[in-house]
Structure to design on (429 residues):
């Protein structure tokens, strides 16, 4: 049985790639929040304070079933790319910029980015989020969605830009720890370009653990990944007892000019799941999950922490980045549940029964599970994912499990699946 599943996993990797490539041209692949800054000083100050490269739309007017806001396109952006990042819409929506359709999201519970360069114009621009309270989608959203309160970031980046950053921690013998970083670069020009990325890894903003630079040549509309490694002492590993966070500083230099800066937290931990137990940095933890609504506040999380809770499972819904950042900073282990709950459809697997066993829903299920992974992967607190809440079982959740296993080694659980194979804890019983 297990060898069969392994075979299916390989096939599923190809399926997952196909799902990603099926996105429209304007919709970027899912990622965690990654904001560029115009200077190294601004990057070190961090936050989402508006700057030369960043505007925030958090005030909206409701008109004819749509939320409308504005941003300003300065002259200095004319030779750059412009992106719109939506967080917290909490229902399906379409995006229009100046009356021109950009794209849509059937899943409003994960952040989504769209390239709006072609739809934007110099000076004032109008953004419309046309909400679609679709009854068809509601059948897999049997949870309290709340009122849509989106925050939209307007992000300006150079045409040769940092697209994403990820890393992996490896614990060797004698306490030697190596971390491997990946910086995904993208060229959106008609010619070949070279980029030089400078990197520095700091502890407490003062102790430089590693640093250097890498060069990459990108072809026309090319994509490539810069890779570099750094040895670090095991004393900087992240855990609930020691939620140590480092700072990774990046500088993107194109043709001798520094065009964007980044400074964000990096937390290093090794994770495996064996025999029904979690091992964080080779130390065993028996997770006692406390179920928490994703609509909780950071004050709620602070109360849970004060009461001794160190492991929470967010139920289906939209988990704000601020909640995960709180858990990162304070050492709370987290399980994230994909925004799927089809309990209102009943448990029947027959035709027109629960959507979990209806192939027509397969792409939506896969997208919801994999996007939950992509948009939270840089948070060290996230040590598990749940496929859904109370959604019976069937082909859609099978495929979602396989797609998830193809992109992450973090354990995937589904406790409402009737002890079927699409949950990692089944193998440990």
């Amino acid at each position: 049985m297990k060898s069969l599943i392994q075979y299916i996993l390989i096939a599923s990797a190809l399926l997952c790639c196909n799902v990603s490539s099926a996105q429209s041209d304007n919709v970027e692949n899912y990622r965690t929040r990654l904001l560029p800054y115009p200077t190294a000083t601004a990057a070190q100050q961090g936050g989402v304070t508006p700057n030369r490269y960043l505007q925030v739309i958090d005030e909206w007017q409701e008109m004819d079933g749509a939320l409308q806001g504005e941003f300003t396109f300065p002259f200095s952006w004319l030779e750059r790319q412009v992106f719109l990042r939506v967080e917290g819409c909490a229902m399906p929506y379409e995006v229009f910029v100046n009356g021109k359709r950009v794209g849509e999201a059937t899943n409003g519970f994960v952040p989504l980015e769209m390239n709006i360069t072609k739809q934007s114009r110099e000076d004032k621009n109008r953004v419309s989020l046309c909400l679609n309270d679709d009854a068809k989608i509601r059948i897999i959203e049997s949870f309290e969605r709340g009122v849509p309160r989106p925050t939209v970031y307007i992000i300006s980046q150079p045409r040769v830009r940092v697209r994403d950053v990820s890393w992996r921690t490896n614990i060797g013998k004698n306490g030697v720890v190596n971390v491997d970083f990946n910086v995904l670069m993208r060229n959106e020009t008609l010619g070949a370009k070279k980029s030089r990325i400078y990197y520095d890894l700091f502890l407490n903003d003062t102790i430089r653990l590693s640093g250097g630079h890498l060069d990459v040549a990108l072809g026309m509309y090319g994509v490539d990944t810069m890779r570099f490694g750094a040895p670090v002492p095991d004393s900087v590993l992240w855990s609930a007892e020691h939620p140590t966070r480092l700072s990774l500083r990046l500088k993107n230099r194109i043709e001798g000019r520094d065009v964007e800066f980044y400074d964000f937290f990096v937390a290093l931990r090794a994770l495996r799941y064996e025999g029904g137990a979690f091992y964080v940095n080779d130390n065993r933890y028996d997770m006692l999950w406390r179920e928490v609504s994703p609509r909780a506040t950071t004050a709620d999380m602070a109360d849970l922490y004060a009461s001794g809770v160190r492991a929470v499972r967010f139920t289906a819904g939209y988990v704000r980045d601020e909640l995960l950042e709180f858990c990162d900073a304070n050492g709370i282990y987290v399980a994230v549940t994909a925004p799927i709950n089809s309990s209102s459809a009943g448990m029947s697997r027959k035709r027109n029964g629960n959507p979990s066993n209806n192939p027509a829903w397969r792409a939506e299920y896969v997208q919801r599970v994999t996007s939950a992974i992509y948009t939270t992967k840089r948070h060290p607190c996230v040590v598990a994912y749940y496929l859904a809440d109370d959604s019976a079982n069937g082909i859609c959740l099978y495929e979602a499990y396989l797609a998830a296993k193809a992109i992450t080694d973090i354990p995937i659980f589904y406790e409402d699946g009737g002890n079927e194979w699409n949950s990692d804890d089944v193998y440990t019983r």
